[in-house]
């Protein structure tokens, strides 16, 4: 019998839940689906956008949270990147800039993907990408039409 996987929702640890919710909700237009506690002051949240789910969890309990974010903890997030399929990279770039984010300008990677990177408030890297060539775009259309 096969394992029937029908989705994935990464869970990331965040320092400041209200700050992270504002970024994912207001900048990236994720919808807050569920929280463990009041939306702005919760320890866990499930967000969703266009079938993509992401869970946020506070890195510290409320009574144990330090006053300042630990730079070493933040630096450790540098090896984590979330890749999102995004058809309109240039439009996304301008939209994110207009919403106060600081994305890197779009560029084509050596393997043929047009990509734009931006960091979230906790230092996790987010990559928005789409095939640069028509041939690759056709392969992606077929892949996602079948899904």
Describe the structure.
With 147 residues, the chain is α/β, with parallel strands linked by helices. The chain folds into 2 domains: 1-69, 2,3-Dihydroxybiphenyl 1,2-Dioxygenase, domain 1, CATH 3.10.180.10; 76-147, 2,3-Dihydroxybiphenyl 1,2-Dioxygenase, domain 1, CATH 3.10.180.10. It contains 4 helices and 8 strands; from the N terminus they run βαβββαβαβββα. The chain has helices at 17-27, 71-76, 89-98, 134-146, and strands at 11-14, 31-35, 44-49, 52-58, 81-85, 107-108, 113-119, 125-131. A hairpin with an 8-residue loop joins β2 and β3. The radius of gyration is 17 Å and the shape is globular.
Attribute tags:
globular; 8 strands; alpha/beta; 2,3-Dihydroxybiphenyl 1,2-Dioxygenase, domain 1; four-stranded mixed beta sheet; 147 residues; 2 domains; 27% helix
């Amino acid at each position: 019998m096969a394992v029937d996987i029908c989705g994935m929702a990464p869970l990331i640890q965040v320092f400041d839940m209200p700050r992270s919710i504002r970024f994912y909700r207001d900048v990236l237009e994720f919808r807050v689906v569920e929280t463990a506690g009041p939306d702005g002051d919760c320890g866990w949240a499930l967000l969703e956008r266009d079938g993509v789910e992401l869970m946020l969890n506070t890195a510290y309990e409320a009574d144990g949270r330090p006053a300042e974010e630990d730079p070493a903890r933040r630096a450790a997030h540098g090896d984590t990147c979330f890749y999102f399929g995004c058809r309109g990279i240039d439009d996304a770039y301008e939209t994110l800039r207009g919403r106060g984010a600081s994305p890197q300008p779009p560029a084509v990677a050596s393997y043929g993907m047009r990509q734009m990177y931006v960091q979230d408030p906790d230092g996790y890297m987010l990559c928005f990408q789409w095939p640069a060539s028509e041939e690759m775009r056709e392969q992606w259309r077929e892949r996602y039409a079948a899904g």
